Amino acid sequence: MFGKTQRGVSERSTKPTKPLIPKWLGTLVLVLIVICGFVALMLWKPWAPVATKNQVTSEHYQEDTNKDYRFYELLPQQQVTPIPQQAVPEAPVRTQPVIVEAPTTPQPSLNEDGETVITAAPIQPSYILQVRSFSDPDSADARRAEILLNGLSAEVVKSSENGQTWYRVISGPYESQNAAVIAQQTLQHSGIDSIVVKR
């Protein structure tokens, strides 16, 4: 019984077992992995700032743009062609506004004897802008609103001519011709045509 091993118990061998991968091969693989990681970081450069897409840092591009300034040398050598005299106006052309005078009606007054005398009294003239006449009151009111949006006064005057009803859009009155012309130019900038009427 002394030389026999018991059942269920195996004998341990005292021989050293051979590892599956030799130590030198494992060390070589580990060194290669570290080198590959280092090369990948050097190519990727996560610590470097990101360059914007519209920045051009190429030296070739810089050279091409510097060549574009040749006109400094070419310009003094150019010959200047004068403008023909018939193309230049002699005096600046100014367009004067057209002013229409409305007919004046004489004002009745009483004389010393109590008789009615019609005399034309000197009245300070005023100016209005006649914009347009419409047969439709809604169109006239829409044009009046456009004039009001330009900061000018406007009203619609109803009148009848030859049995037809017209709605005239006018702006004013203005105390001077100059004020009426300025108002007319304001309307022209908004695409609204008008004429100055002196009353």
Account of the protein in words:
- The protein has 199 residues and is of the alpha+beta class.
- It has a domain at 127-198: Sporulation related repeat (Alpha-Beta Plaits).
- The chain is 30% helix and 21% strand.
- A 5-stranded mixed beta sheet has the order 1-7-4-6-5.
- The protein is elongated, with a radius of gyration of 50 Å.
Element-level helix/strand string? HHHEEEEHEEHE
The average pLDDT is 76
Write out the CATH superfamily name of the domain at 127-198: Sporulation related repeat
Strand ordering within the main sheet = 1-7-4-6-5
The CATH architecture designation of the domain at 127-198 is: 2-Layer Sandwich
The number of helical segments is: 5
Q: Which stretches of 5+ consecutive residues score pLDDT under 50?
A: none
Question: Which overall shape is indicated by the principal axes computed on the Cα atoms?
Answer: elongated
- Estimated share of beta-strand residues: 15-25%
> What's the end-to-end separation, in Å?
150 Å
- CATH names the topology of the domain at 127-198 as Alpha-Beta Plaits
Q: How helix-rich are the residues, as a percent range? A: 25-40%
What does the radius of gyration come to?
50 Å
Question: Major sheet: size, sense and barrel closure?
Answer: 5 strands, mixed
Class from secondary-structure proportions? alpha+beta
